[in-house]
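User: Here's a structure from my thesis project, written as structure tokens. My advisor, Dr. K., wants to see whether a designed sequence matches the one we expressed. Can you design one independently, without my sequence as a hint?
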């Protein structure tokens, strides 16, 4: 049994790999694929890393094989980057997902395909309670790409080509490291940077309500997806999160780090 993680060199991919290697899940190989991999992730003999561009012809044929049981598709062009580079966003976020699904379809076994979707599939005016079946109303290219991929995963699952799940991730807070090009990167920055003695800018109103989850909770839920029973007619699931305002987060920052930490956050809209 082989498990594959695309985007395996990223923050989520590395955390998920560690969780799977330390779990009771039985597999003989965990293959991480990304454009660039960290120098060393684990000494486990079950771990293999591959630096490759999955969008290039002929690569997928050597990645997904008859030994593959689970594919975690985490690789993506993040939100602001996908908005700025329209063609690249659709090439990676939609076209690559379709190519991965096709590679799974060609195998003799039915592969569990776990797609990392996003709350970006929702936009505009939403109901008070957003459920798994709330209509998708993306307001960005990234959100539209994720929504389109959810439909692909659902249809390939309906046809019996894969055993698919599309997991809608909340905004992950607090992410370590430097901000990336995700539109939501400020959510971690307004907590992370002030606690490290650095200033940061909050680009939104304190009244803005967010849907967030900790890295540990998201990784735990992703790891469960390898063996989660098929949900039935719809393959898209909203992962657990909590609803908070930016103001509530900043008040928590003040309580944790003092007024000096809170004062390191300035506002610019």
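Assistant: Designed independently from the structure alone:
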């Amino acid at each position: 049994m082989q498990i594959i993680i695309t985007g395996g060199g990223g923050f989520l991919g590395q955390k998920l790999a560690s969780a799977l290697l330390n779990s009771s899940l039985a597999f003989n190989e965990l293959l991480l694929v990304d454009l660039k991999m960290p120098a060393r992730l684990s000494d486990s003999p079950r771990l293999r890393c591959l630096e490759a561009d999955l969008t290039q012809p002929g690569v997928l044929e050597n990645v997904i094989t008859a030994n593959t049981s689970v594919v975690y598709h985490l690789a993506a062009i993040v939100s602001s980057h996908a908005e700025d580079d329209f063609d690249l966003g659709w090439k990676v976020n939609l076209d690559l997902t379709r190519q991965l699904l096709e590679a799974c379809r060609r195998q003799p076994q039915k592969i569990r395909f776990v797609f990392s979707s996003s709350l970006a599939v929702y936009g505009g005016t939403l109901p008070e309670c957003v459920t798994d079946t709330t209509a998708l109303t993306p307001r960005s290219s990234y959100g539209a790409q994720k929504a389109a991929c959810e439909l692909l995963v659902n249809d390939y699952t309906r046809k019996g080509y894969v055993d698919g799940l599309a997991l809608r991730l909340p905004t992950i807070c607090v992410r370590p490291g430097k901000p990336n090009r995700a539109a939501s990167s400020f959510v971690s920055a307004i907590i992370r940077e002030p606690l490290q003695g650095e200033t940061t800018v909050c680009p939104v109103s304190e009244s803005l309500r967010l849907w967030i989850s900790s890295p540990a909770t998201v990784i735990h839920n992703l790891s469960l997806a390898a063996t989660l029973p098929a949900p039935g007619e719809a393959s898209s699931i909203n992962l657990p999160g909590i609803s908070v305002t930016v103001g509530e987060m900043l008040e928590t920052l003040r309580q944790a780090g003092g007024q000096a930490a809170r004062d390191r956050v300035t506002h610019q809209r």
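When you compare it with your expressed construct, this may help: The longest helix spans residues 86-105.
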